[in-house]
Amino acid sequence: MTSPPPPPSPPNPSANITPLEQEVLDEYTRLLSNLHKFSTLLSNLADRPTADVLDGLRVLERKTSLVCTLLKASVYSIVLQQQVYGGEEGEGEVG
Asked: Cα separation of 33 and 24, whole Å?
């Protein structure tokens, strides 16, 4: 009894690929790498206790509200200065 012949080896894929096909394969490789990194980050985030995540979000919320308050104060100051300067110019033209 003889054993069956081994299956033919597949041809070298890189020899039959056009440059465009190689570029697409490279993009898929990068996409796979990015998805793997994303999956790792999500896994790490899921492993952290919820309290830690919420504490981090509270700190971020405080900082954001502080920036918003400072922005509002700056805009109010600019508007007030424009009204003051506009009032002085109006008085000078009348008198």
From this structure: 14
Is 82 within 8 Å of 74 (Cβ atoms)? Answer: no
pLDDT tens figures, 24-71: 999 999 999 999 999 999 898 888 888 888 898 999 999 999 999 999
Q: CA-to-CA distance for 81 and 78, rounded, in angstroms?
A: 5
Write the CB contacts of 25 (distance below 8 Å, at least 6 apart in sequence). 17
64 contact partners, CB below 8 Å, separation of at least 6? none
45 contacts: CB under 8 Å, gap ≥ 6:
53
Q: Is the pTM of this model over 0.70?
A: no
